Amino acid sequence: MKDNNSGKSSLLREEKEEKILVDPYGRKVTGLRISITDRCNLSCMYCHNEGADCCSCGPVGHEMSPELICGIVREAAKFGVSKIKFSGGEPLFRKDFEDILACLPPLKEVSATTNGIMLEKRAKTLKAAGLDRVNVSLDTLNSEKYGKITGAPPGTLEKVIKGIDSAVEAGLTPVKLNMVLLKGINDNEIDDMMDFTRPYKGKVILQLIELMNIAPELSKYTIDSKALEKSLEERASEVRVRHLHHRKKYIINGVEVEFVRPMDNSEFCANCSRLRITADGKLKPCLLVHDNLVDAREAKTPEEIEKLLRLAVSRRRPYYTPIIGIEELEKKRRQEKYIKRSKNKATEK
Ligand SMILES: Nc1nc2c(ncn2[C@@H]2O[C@H](COP(=O)(O)OP(=O)(O)OP(=O)(O)O)[C@@H](O)[C@H]2O)c(=O)[nH]1
Ligand code: SF4
Ligand code: SF4
Q: Complex ipTM, two decimals?
């Protein structure tokens, strides 16, 4: 009787465990970050193309069909994936973005990251089609600097600000303003950005982003993240920690400020819960790793998609890991020696 019961409960546990995607490092995958196009109308100096390893070919208009995108999301949702982030390039280049949104299964949250240029006209239709919120890139409030950072023509910054207002009006909230910090260019504008954010009364969040050092010529723009973190902490009336990447959120004079600090940050990677999908339909286990992608374009059935999702998840590993200290290394060596000796003794017997 007892045996039967314990067998039953372990099966139930197995069933439960099968319903989630967990990588070999115990990190649950609860979100997908899907690039729906590699086209963009800006050329930001820090752009990492969502980790697409296309430096040789450049963005060439790779795009998946709405059917493939929704097929992958539907399958992933069966395994507990509940948050979808659409990105690009610039996702609003897709005229059928609303169709993509409309064919998604029920989810906890659907968001998009956009440069905001085309947002004014689309905010309402995107909301109606099922988009919950947007992140808008806004590194500076100075038109000249905006042009320098993004390569945009004069007048673009004004369009982006109109786009932010329309997103707030349409209820695509909270709108997050993505500010990539660049030493000597915009790192003195954090307070101005907080002042810009405050009147939206919680409907807009300021998201400070550490520059990803993807090219040697960018290293001179890297800010001192630890010093910034310390000063944010000192100024905050409240500090919260998000589950995703263990990102910190600071409440400063009524403004919510989130700090995205991925570089050399093992805690960030240890709490990474998203699998990426590139514009050309490849499942990408990590933003910074380019040789372990899984091609999802050939998948014809839900079973095939499931198999590929499981394969991609099995290839996930944290990019930054804690450095093992000498003492720990010594301990590990001693343990390995002990195990080897015990094994030898056992075979001698
Ligand atoms: N290394 C690394 N950087 C990331 C990751 N996710 C986001 N980032 C960085 O954060 C930037 C902004 O991300 P967004 O596209 O706005 O989305 P998000 O802030 O990650 O997501 P939400 O807070 O849920 O809206 C990206 O361009 C990256 O520079 C990640 O998983 N790994
Ligand atoms: S808007 Fe985004 S995708 Fe376009 S160039 Fe800038 S960072 Fe890259
Ligand atoms: S493992 Fe780290 S670097 Fe890779 S995607 Fe996750 S958070 Fe980014």
A: 0.97
